[in-house]
Design goal:
Layout lengths: L1 E7 L14 E5 L2 H13 L2 E8 L4 E3 H12 L1
Antiparallel strand pairs: 1-2, 1-3, 3-4
Length: 72
């Protein structure tokens, strides 16, 4: 299971204590997580973090890189 945390455009970071209050979506696998991040990016939202139950943690920069690779 992966959780994708998003915020309004321009947001830069998620303080750890605020994660529970932010919007997030749960998905089954990383491909779906990156797909949701792409959707959120296209609609003008910032995707700040993808966390997985397996210990995976992608920050905003890593997500942006994955989205660029997906587009090429």
């Amino acid at each position: 299971m992966y959780r994708i945390y998003s915020a309004p455009a321009g947001a830069e970071d998620i303080p750890p204590l605020e994660r529970d209050r932010l919007l997030h979506k749960d998905v089954a696998d990383m491909d779906e997580a990156i797909g949701w991040a792409a959707h959120m990016s296209r609609t003008g939202h910032a995707v700040l973090l993808i966390e997985g139950d397996d210990g995976t943690s992608l920050g905003a920069g890593e997500i942006a890189s994955a989205l660029r690779q997906r587009m090429s």
